[in-house]
């Protein structure tokens, strides 16, 4: 890697990540803060984030596209639960339609980000590939840094160390790195895991395999949902596109929040509802009790949605099965379970989950001193204590990611206007007292519990509590009095404290 001798560019705002969140952030920035110079830095060579990276069969949204899509660009496709290529096309069209694509710098990975109290600027160290394919190090400065890279590690998936895997005669694949040359037609496939990826893969693979088996250690809540929203279709017939989109979006937001609250407040009733619906589809109470009745309550972990019950229909056709057991060891012909049963397999897919990675791997520093993220608190789900002029985009865990992402981007624009209106060089969130620390993501899911201690925390009261209620957030977030909890800083101001409860 070589250092570039070119003087650094300077921009008002740098957005990290050209996925669903980053493109939405760029739209809000250029419409609500016109005149601000900005760039979107994307480490890969294409936009789309998750929807370009993940290529496994059947990849699709797990939220309806009327809420996962942008509020400013109506979703016009027929399917409410959309496939990955359709979502990628939607993001690409949005970037082109609003000229955002001209601001994207591909192959630009942020290696480090350092805030200078003296100049009130961020200096970003960026690894870029030149025309010859060599990696060079360049620098870029900006007034405000906005991380829209999500919280997943796109370079590594969660891969448990399975005993005996080297003895297996078949092929082992992680869906995050799906090989283009994988031939599974007519073969026996075992999918390890029972999360959203697994329940997506099973019906997609079942169309071509001899048999696909989903092997789970314990059941997950899985719910059949309509792949196409008939009420939405009717609304689109009666109303103009933009108005129809707003009405459908509101309808789905209300339903989603209502169902989540029902599950949390009446868990036993929700359990009966979900198991009853699954029993009605499979017509096998024993199978539902053994494989589809978790010990945890609905929405303790994220609910897996299967459009048009495709997962269950694959089981009814005899093309798929679910086995609830533990792995003892891999053997040449497949997987031997602790029950003694051997699952024959030609291909094993380890849908064992993702790794969390805070803010695309960016660990910000202030005046050369790294900020310990796990000691910081998140303000309004967007900015961090101890880190001036820095925001992160974090979506909901109980609803469409974009609902919170769009609110956060609009809040960032409000902060930028606040800076300009008051002549501030920078602001940093500061609590007005001690905060009770809570995990940033309040889910019992394994992928969250493995890494959440490395993330900033939320507090026990507003505006430090990250709520999971879009209705409340949509009313309160943009009405926040910024002067109460954002402390102004000027160039050459004292270095901000990085402690969790800095005042």
From TrEMBL:
It comes from Nocardia aurea. Pfam families: FMO-like, NAD_binding_8. InterPro entries: FAD-binding_MO (IPR051820), FAD/NAD-bd_sf (IPR036188), Flavin_mOase-like (IPR020946). It is an enzyme of class 1 (oxidoreductase). This is NAD(P)/FAD-dependent oxidoreductase. Belongs to the FAD-binding monooxygenase family. Its EC number is 1.14.13.-. The keyword Oxidoreductase applies. Keywords: FAD, Flavoprotein, Monooxygenase, Oxidoreductase. GO terms for molecular function: oxidoreductase activity. The keyword Flavoprotein applies. SUPFAM superfamilies: FAD/NAD(P)-binding domain (SSF51905). Its cofactor is FAD.
């Amino acid at each position: 890697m070589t250092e570039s001798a070119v003087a650094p560019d300077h921009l008002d705002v740098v957005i990290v990540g050209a996925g669903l969140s980053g493109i939405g952030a760029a739209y809000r920035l250029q419409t609500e803060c016109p005149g601000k110079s900005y760039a979107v830095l994307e480490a890969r060579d294409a936009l789309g984030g998750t929807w370009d990276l993940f290529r496994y069969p059947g990849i699709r949204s797990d939220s309806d596209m009327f809420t996962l899509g942008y509020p400013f660009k109506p979703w016009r496709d027929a399917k409410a639960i959309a496939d990955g290529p359709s979502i990628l096309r939607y993001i690409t069209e949005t970037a082109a339609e609003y000229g955002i694509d001209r601001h994207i710098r591909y192959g630009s990975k942020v290696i480090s980000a350092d805030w200078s109290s003296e100049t009130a600027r961020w200096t970003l160290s960026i690894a870029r590939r030149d025309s010859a394919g060599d990696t060079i190090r360049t620098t870029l400065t900006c007034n405000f840094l906005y991380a829209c890279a999500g919280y997943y590690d796109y370079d590594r998936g969660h891969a448990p160390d399975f005993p005996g895997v080297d003895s297996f005669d078949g092929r082992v694949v992680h869906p995050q790195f799906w090989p283009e040359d994988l031939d599974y037609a007519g073969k026996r496939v075992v999918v390890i895991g029972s999360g959203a990826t697994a329940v997506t893969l099973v019906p997609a693979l079942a169309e071509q395999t001899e048999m696909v088996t989903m092997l789970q250690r314990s059941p997950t809540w899985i719910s059949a949902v309509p792949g196409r929203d008939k009420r939405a279709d009717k609304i689109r017939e009666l109303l103009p596109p933009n108005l129809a989109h707003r009405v459908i979006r509101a309808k789905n937001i209300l339903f989603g929040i209502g169902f989540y609250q029902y599950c949390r407040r009446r868990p036993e009733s929700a359990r009966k509802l979900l198991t009853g619906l699954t029993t009605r589809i499979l017509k096998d109470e024993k199978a539902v009790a053994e494989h589809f009745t978790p010990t945890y309550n609905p929405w303790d972990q994220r609910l897996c949605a299967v459009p048009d019950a495709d997962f269950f229909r694959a089981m009814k056709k005899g093309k798929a099965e679910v086995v609830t057991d533990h792995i003892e060891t891999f053997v040449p012909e497949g997987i031997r379970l602790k029950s003694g049963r051997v699952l024959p397999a030609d291909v094993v897919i380890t849908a064992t989950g993702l790794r969390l990675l805070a803010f695309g791997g960016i660990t910000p520093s202030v005046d050369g001193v790294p900020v310990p993220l796990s000691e910081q608190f998140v303000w309004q789900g967007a900015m961090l204590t101890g880190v001036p002029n820095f925001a992160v985009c974090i979506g909901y865990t109980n609803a469409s990611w974009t609902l919170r992402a769009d609110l956060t981007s609009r809040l960032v624009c409000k902060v930028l206007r606040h800076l300009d209106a008051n002549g501030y060089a920078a602001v940093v969130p500061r609590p007005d007292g001690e905060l009770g620390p809570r995990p940033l993501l309040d889910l019992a899911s394994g992928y969250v519990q493995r890494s959440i201690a490395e993330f900033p925390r939320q507090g026990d009261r507003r505006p430090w509590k990250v709520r999971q209620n879009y209705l409340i957030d949509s009313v309160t977030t943009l009405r926040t009095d910024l002067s109460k909890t954002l402390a102004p800083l000027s160039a050459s101001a004292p270095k901000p404290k990085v402690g969790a409860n800095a005042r």
